[in-house]
Amino acid sequence: MRIGVLLLVILSSWPALAAGDEFRFTAPDGRSRDYLLSVPARADGAALPLIIVLHGTYGSADKMEKHLGFEPYVERYRVAVAYPDAYRERGARRTLRWNDGRGTLASSEAGIDDVAALRALVDDIGRRVKLDRRRVFVAGASNGGMMAYRIGCEAADLVAGIAPVIGAVARPIYPDCRPSRPISILAINGMDDPIVPFAGGTVCADVPKIFCERGEVAGAEESLRRFADGAGCKGAPAVRDLPAGVDDGTQVRRVDYAGCAAGVRVRGLWVRGGGHAWPPLPSQLGQRRSGRSTGNLDATEAIVRFFLTPGDSVP
Questions:
Q1: Model's pTM, two decimal places?
Q2: How far is the C-alpha of 200 from the C-alpha of 304, rounded, in Å?
Q3: I want to staple 223 with a disulfide (CB 3.0 to 4.6 A). Which of 49, 101, 169, 239 is the partner?
């Protein structure tokens, strides 16, 4: 059940919440922001890890909650999952997108500080449920994946790890991307992505501008390496092509850095033959514009287990 909420329940320190409750908070710039929050049904007093899931262009919190498949893991792993919306002007149908650092989006023109907003989001959730602040993670798709990278670059103190999917570090912020502490990262990219080019360059270079706002990004490998360097990882990564369980013209290549700071893992999952999609789901723009997805990877399962069961993560 969804309820619009600004409730303070005084009968309990940590009020009971329903799956998919909707909340509103005020960001430091005074703008109201909305998010959905799912928590385990039974509150046993334990502090919960938190996964924040960021939508992409033309996406929404509601779509991410309905389609990505994080909900079954809420009870299984006793984790809170939050789905915030990027800022939406009053009366507008669509958000201004996350201000991911490209400098080409309406959110950048409006001076939206989404790093500060996501800090405030964690604080707001922490007032509603008991959080394990040592296990806060951010995942995102496309524009949301780029925003996850920006959080890693500029707010590493807030998170233990990030999982950008079909994203990259925006080129304008890349030179100053120096995480303040080592954090774990799982990056997932299609090697044939026509929207966010795997090798870096112009976003949507060959796609009508109506579908996205261009801008420049670093390459997927370059973006991952910045976090490997920040974690003190040693040498070149180990590269392994994983067996393809589905014959759909794709194969997952796993890249792992070694010798990183204690407890920190740096991993890339590169989808050979893969396009701009959250595996195994098809892209919102369709295969003709975005390339194919892959049946050889469940990005949601990989992200949850990478974050929460590091000794047993997949693939």
A1: 0.92
A2: 27
A3: 169
